[in-house]
Each structure stands twice: as C-alpha cells, then as structure tokens.
C-alpha cells in the first residue's frame, strides 16, 4: 500500500483527495500547513507527496526546497496559479509534476500512478546496477544514494552523504579540510573551512555507535581520515 502525504490547507479539498486516495487503495494523511507538512515529510517515509503551492506558515516552494535537501520523495504540486513562471518555479524547486486547480480527481490519480510507476521502474533499474562502497559495516549504494550500517538505513543530508562518500572512497588517505570543502561544497568562496568540522560532527552523530570509536578519525591540524 503506497503512503501519500497531502499538504493542503483547504479543508474540503484535502478531505476529498484523502477519501479518493483511500478508495483507490492508498494510505493517506493530511497536513494542513507548510510547517506541519515539512515535519511529516522529513519524519516519515512517503511514496509521494501532494503539495499545495499557497500554504500558511511555509509556502509550497519552500517546503519542496527543504525536502529536496534531504530526500528524493516524489512530489506533485497542486496550485490554483497556472502561469508559466509558477510552473517553472515549482519544477526548479524539485517538484516532479504539477497540476492546476480545479482539477478532475481522475487526472490527479492518473498523474500519481504514472509518477509511482516511473519511480518503481527507476528503482528496479538502479537496484540491478548498484555501485557500492564499503568501510567496516558501512555501505553506500551510490546510484540509490543509500547509506547502510549493517541492515539499518541511515538518513543523511546531501552534504553529509557527499562528505561520507569522499572519506569512504579514500580510506587511509588523510583529506585536508580544504580538499573536503572543494569535493563537497565545490568552489563556493563564501564557505569557510570550519564548516567541514561542523558537518563531520553531524555525520559522527548519525553513523557512530555510542561507546565505540568514531569511524572518522581527526588528524590534528590537517583534516580527517577513515583508517582500515
């Protein structure tokens, strides 16, 4: 049963969509504002998100942008605004599809089915050709951008993931802070090298086991390394 999150402040519409989704065999939940929708989107795993553009507290574009920093959950934007710039802006912020209100529920369901089929196909294709990087009990599936510790999936942000990948692809190589900065953040001149230290701390909090040595060792005055 696919899990769908509906982020919509218009009560009658959200309830109608929820009932239709349940009738079609989906599991559905409603968030009535952008803040609640973002919290739910990040806290749980959803097969797709139906996201209104005009929301209280946080608008749909900002919600979409913040979700995309962490997850690749499929997103269909729903909005009463049909200008080209609104459609382009929604897609540029990470939405996968766009539907204009008022819409026929049959069209929304068809778009949702098509999106889920596409994601399922991509998932099967990726699982058939995964490139993995391993270090001790950590494994990275590069095409899926999935990090596992044993059988447990560890949720990482984009920067955390890229930082871990850089270290795991260079086991026993000490990577200086400026090298990690270029690998992960590119040539953004406004970023200071101490941001690497901050993200190493974030990463350790997520991958390390309490009471055990850190996977990532600090080389004082230089940078970081993962040693075999």
UniProtKB/TrEMBL annotation:
Keywords: DNA-binding, Phosphoprotein, Transcription, Transcription regulation, Two-component regulatory system. The keyword Calcium does not apply. Transmembrane segments: none annotated. It comes from Ligilactobacillus saerimneri 30a. One of its GO terms (molecular function) is phosphorelay response regulator activity. Residues 130-228 bind DNA. GO terms for biological process: regulation of DNA-templated transcription. One of its GO terms (cellular component) is protein-DNA complex. This is Two-component response regulator. PANTHER family: REGULATOR OF RPOS. InterPro entries: CheY-like_superfamily, OmpR/PhoB-type_DNA-bd, Sig_transdc_resp-reg_C-effctor, Sig_transdc_resp-reg_receiver, WalR-like, WH-like_DNA-bd_sf. The modification 4-aspartylphosphate is found at residue 52. Residues 3-116 form the Response regulatory domain. Residues 130-228 form the OmpR/PhoB-type domain.
């Amino acid at each position: 049963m696919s899990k769908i999150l509906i982020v919509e402040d218009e009560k009658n519409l959200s309830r109608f969509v929820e009932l239709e989704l349940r009738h079609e065999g989906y599991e559905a939940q409603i968030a009535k504002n952008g803040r609640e929708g973002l919290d739910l989107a990040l806290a749980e795993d959803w097969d797709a998100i139906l996201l209104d553009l005009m929301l209280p507290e946080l608008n749909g574009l900002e919600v979409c942008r913040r979700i995309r920093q962490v997850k690749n959950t499929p997103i269909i934007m729903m909005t009463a605004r049909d200008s080209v710039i609104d459609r382009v802006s929604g897609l540029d912020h990470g939405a996968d599809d766009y539907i204009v209100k008022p819409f026929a529920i049959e069209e929304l369901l068809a778009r949702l089915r098509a999106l889920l089929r596409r994601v399922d196909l991509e998932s099967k294709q990726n699982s058939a050709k995964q490139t993995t990087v391993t270090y001790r009990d950590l494994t990275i599936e590069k095409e899926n951008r999935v990090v596992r510790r044993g059988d447990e999936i560890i949720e990482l942000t984009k920067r955390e993931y890229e930082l871990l990948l850089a270290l795991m692809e260079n086991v026993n190589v000490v990577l200086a802070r400026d090298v990690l900065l270029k690998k992960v953040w590119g040539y953004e001149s406004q970023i200071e090298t101490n941001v690497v230290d901050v993200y190493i701390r974030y990463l350790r909090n997520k991958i390390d086991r309490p009471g055990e040595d850190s996977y990532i060792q600090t080389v004082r005055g230089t940078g970081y390394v993962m040693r075999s």
